[in-house]
Fold:
Amino acid sequence: MSETLPVTLGNVTPVTPTDLNAVPFALRGLTVSYGDQPVVLDVDMTALAGRMTAIIGPNGAGKSTLLKAALGIVPRLSGQVTIFGQPFERQRGRVAYVPQRAAVDWDFPSDVLDVVLMGLTRELGLLRRIRSAHRDRALACLDRVGMRDFARRQIGQLSGGQQQRVFLARALAQQAEVYLLDEPFAGVDMATERAIIGVLHALRDEGRTIVCVHHDLSTVARYFDDVFLVNRERIAEGTVAQAFTPEALHRAYGGRLDTATLALGAA
Amino acid sequence: MIWQALMLQLGYNASLVALGAAALGLAAGAVGAFLFLHKRALVSDAVSHATLPGLVGVFLILTLLGGDGRDVLALMAGSALSAWLGLRWVRWLTTRTRLPEDAAIGAALSVLFGFGIVLMTVVQALPAGRQAGLESYLLGSTAGMLFSEAVIIAFGGLAVLAGVFLFRRPLTLTAFDPVFAATQGVSQRKSDAMLMGLVLAITVVGLKIVGLILIVALLVIPPTTARFWTDSVSRLVVLSGGLGAVAAYVGAALSASAPNLPTGPIIVLVGVALFTLSLVAAPRRGALARAIRHRRAARGL
Structure:
């Protein structure tokens, strides 16, 4: 186990600023607290280009909060978030975020294409008109997630899996380099899961950076390259082989190790 | 007489008032659509009632200084200031205490409106002749409206409409998905400032014609009516504005056709008539269409 030490807690690899400029997504000393209770404590994380990273940990470990704080949706108490070495606030255009599906009201008066076009918000600004080139791009993104035929469908009529794919298409329309997804596979059908993983792997192979909050331990080894194990603090970080170990899982999940080992056995 | 009013044949002034009202209704309907999408319709009630202390306060100050208390721009500025303070108060209550927004709105609305009414009794103690002109701001009036006032209302409405056009994308985005919007640089705070700014502006502009008690109807009824007819945000905003314009135009013209008809209530009644018609007869979302679908489904089984 000693060879995994450089990536485990207490051994922060020293990173100089010049290094950070090449890192698509980095957290340094991130701390978030609700009230006086820290939910995320002094977390360092580094996600690399052309890699797919799973953020895993038990319920309430601060996985979603970590992403939301990185994106400035939840206020950070301290710490830095850098995208290619620059603060996130100056790099919004290079980051796409896919929120949890349940976070929005699907009875909103919009069709699928309208939602995908929301991915062009920054590009269009306040005054620019939506042109056919924009629509074509949105349709191409829908095509990638297998939803092109649904472009004119009301969003209220979609299944859960279809909603998730529309969100992914909106993120694709942003043409970002870093993709942050909050439980993209939660409560979706198998067809959707396969469609999403296909798209994410294609993005990874194009050299983009993918970070997913993920809860299904049985699919970690199959879907992801890297693992970030968190339970309020960073527990382990590295390749699946380095960080997704029984010992690290035991430290992250504590008494719930049984499920963890079961999952490892299944994988 | 009614027909003449609608056809703008009651003279130059009445026609101008009707057109000013239409511009106001157009802008109010468009703003109201976004208020409706954000599920914040009730806030407009707090804004409108919170205008009263500022309105009466400015009237008192101007009158006591020996000026004309009915100066429409000064009254608008006073209303805007006190409505803004009311909004700040609602915001403070919801962020610093455990009070939910509806309770905070109820508290701010009643306290500020009550305070305004107290100030009104002071106005009534003024010598006769100097106290006239203020009561029309409660229920709205087109009677004796000045040319300059109608022009201010029309241009104010068009300015608000321009604001709606400018902010349409961020306001749509935050209404549907505030979390995603924040990652795009449109924070809840920014979108709140845009939406509340528009509501405040249209309330102040509409005070004279619709009155502060009923301006909320012009913000709420058109979008709920429009929702029966469309499933798209852009069409909802356009349709809601159109319905607001029709209601305000017809209402203002009708109230000008007879003496002592309050403008606000007539506008609201026209709006409600359009709403009821849509509720019953709209295709797909209307009550009739639903009943027919239901029967067909039952027969199919």
In short: Chain B touches chain A at residues 37, 166-167, 169-170, 172-173, 175-177, 179-186, 227, 230-233, 236 (CB under 8 Å). Chain B has a mean pLDDT of 89. DSSP finds 13 helices and no strands in chain B. The radius of gyration of chain B is 20 Å.
